[in-house]
Amino acid sequence: MIIYQEHAHHVTEASFENGFFDGWPNPPSIATFIRILQNSTHVILAVDDQTGRVVGFINALSDQILTAYIPLLEVVPSYQGRGIGKELTQRMLDKLKEIYMVDLLCDPDLQDFYANLGMRKAQGMLIRNYAHQSGKLE
Ligand SMILES: CC(C)(COP(=O)(O)OP(=O)(O)OC[C@H]1O[C@@H](n2cnc3c(N)ncnc32)[C@H](O)[C@@H]1OP(=O)(O)O)[C@@H](O)C(=O)NCCC(=O)NCCS
Fold first, then answer.
1. What is the pLDDT of residues 106-130, one digit of tens each?
2. Percent of the chain at pLDDT above 90?
3. SS3 14
4. For residue 137, how far is its CA from the centre of ligand 1 (angstroms)?
5. From CA 117, how far away is CA 119, in angstroms rounded?
6. Are strands 2-5 and 53-62 parallel, antiparallel or unpaired?
7. How far apart are CA 15 and CA 138, in angstroms?
8. What residue ranges do the domains of the chain occupy?
9. How far, in Å, CA of 85 to CA of 4, rounded?
10. Is the pLDDT of residue 138 over 90?
11. Whose CA is nearest to atom 33 of ligand 1?
12. Which domain of life is it from (predicted)?
């Protein structure tokens, strides 16, 4: 069974299933990943209660008044297709339901996934500083 945990207080490098940041050429280390989770305004972890390991997550950054941004959602490949990504997103959108602007960026092939959860398509702008894809140095 998958359980959903709304904090990342006690996670360690051993807490994570293999496979996060799939396809990233220069991914954050697990230690940096933990800092990302712990620095986020909101985080929801999906944990396999059989293994005790985190198999998926979503985070949000927010001013907690008007705006929130969902930068990351991922389910490790071996756990995809079981409804975990949908559940994580629904739970995060519910946490943010009193926030006026809830934004995220995604590739076109994921727009239907988010549209099915009540979001609508938009246009945006971005910068990616690829030299820092693994995270800003402390
Ligand atoms: C996107 C992602 C989080 C989906 O997680 P998942 O646990 O495999 O998805 P679910 O099993 O919850 O799928 C829920 C529904 O969305 C559908 N779906 C999944 N991926 C989809 C996609 N790329 N496009 C459209 N629909 C999709 C599923 O078919 C399912 O439909 P159903 O409810 O009718 O059965 C996962 O594929 C992933 O981690 N991808 C790599 C990272 C990524 O792209 N993250 C998003 C960044 S914006």
1. 999 999 999 999 999 999 999 999 9
2. 98
3. helix
4. 31
5. 6
6. unpaired
7. 22
8. 2-132
9. 11
10. no
11. 83
12. Bacteria
